[in-house]
Amino acid sequence: MESHGPVRVRRCGAIRGGARARGDGARGAAVRHSRHGKGELVGWVTIEALSVSYGDTRVLDDVSLHIPRGSLVAVLGPSGCGKTTLLRAVAGLLPVDSGTITVGGRLVTGPGVLRAPEKRGMGWVPQDASLFPHLSVGENIGFGLPRTKQNDDLYCEPGETSGGVGGLLAGLTRRGRANRARPVSVLAGTAAHANPLTAVPISPDRGRQTSRAARIAELATLVGLAELVDRAPSQLSGGQAQRVSLARALAPRPDLILLDEPFAALDPLLRSALRTEVAALLRGQHNTSVIVTHDQEEALSLADFVAVMRGGKILQFGTPADVYERPVDPWVAGFVGDTVELDGQWRDGQVECALGSLPADWMGAASAPADGTPVLVLLRPEWLTLALPSTERQTGAVTTAIAYAGHDALVSFALPAGLTVRARVAAPDLPRIGDRLTLGVRQNALAYPLGA
Known about the structure:
Blueprint: E1 8-10, E2 32-33, E3 45-54, E4 57-67, E5 72-76, H1 83-91, E6 98-103, E7 106-110, E8 113-114, E9 122-125, H2 137-141, H3 165-168, H4 174-180, H5 184-187, H6 191-194, H7 207-222, H8 238-250, E10 256-260, H9 268-284, E11 289-293, H10 296-302, E12 305-310, E13 313-318, H11 320-325, H12 330-336, E14 339-347, E15 350-353, E16 356-362, E17 373-379, E18 384-386, E19 394-404, E20 408-414, E21 420-426, E22 436-441, E23 445-449
Parallel strand pairs: 2-13, 5-11, 5-12, 9-10, 10-11, 16-23
Antiparallel strand pairs: 1-14, 3-4, 3-6, 6-7, 7-8, 12-13, 14-15, 14-17, 15-16, 17-23, 18-22, 19-20, 19-22, 20-21
Domain ABC transporter: 45-336
Keywords: ATP-binding, Cell membrane, Ion transport, Iron, Iron transport, Membrane, Nucleotide-binding, Transport
Protein name: ABC transporter ATP-binding protein
């Protein structure tokens, strides 16, 4: 086998000097969508040619995005790429230089149009929950719901029994307020926490108020906080506070839910559990949602569609599988997961590289190049396998390092040419340092033009 250039192994999530990154001018500002033509996605939320600047600094540059109704879309990118600015512009919290934003057929941002945030029909879930400290859990949830003039705070009327509105949402009665002033130890085991959400019939003269209380009770139960409606925010854990923030955003039944890195401040175990629950809840409520994150695992595991941003532009929009398995360029590939990069040459649908002659998919914008053209060969570590001696597309290798992760490991192998590649190997199949093995490739390699 002829000698090839040096191999580059990139780890997920970092922008590395020396790695081939997509220049801003490469292939223009085009965004590769997973569906087009007859299968083009129909946008419930439509963002067209949106540009936003802070002074003389352009933060969003001609961003376009179509979000299907009922979908959960993750906007993924490194810090400073413009993803939170995009969310704030959609929410109406920032003026835009140019472009339009339409939600459900309603123009909310456009030439001469800047609908106020509270009139856009959107719910907002911030990173730090931002609950009102002087209000209970129930009152925080119901903050954005309409109130009756006569009984604005949902107090029980004089002489009203616990079977009235106060029985429906005990946490919003005068007694509930008094309980919040006591220490948590005094509240433990009280009747207020034993069964605070007993539903009662809606009386004709109190229908609007009771309907509001019923909505609060429904959401408190939905987010698993039915027994905590009397609690003050200071008595909640971080995960519970985020549940309240989500319920508050859902309360008025908005057309769009916007979540700005809502799990970033939580510990890893809680973050993993809560984000799964939140995604299931949003889908169960048939909400259209946009979540901003810089966590690749979060975006790929939760979202129906992922928009990858860099430098104020959206580089790729598609399903998690599209973005991970067919990244539009090497930078996107390296940002959403681990990669193995090799120099190679294109020859009639295959690439010749340090791993041999591999079937490959051409990922350039133009048609496939002429035979012999130098290309960048990209693989995912899990596409490399410990092959049996009789399989094709194999090359000898020596195990040099193991980065153990419990369920699997990234194993480094030295190739005959002196290069190193890494494969993701399940824990039961891990080799030992120094073992001589044969590597195979189970999936077509991706070939990109040099400088992509």
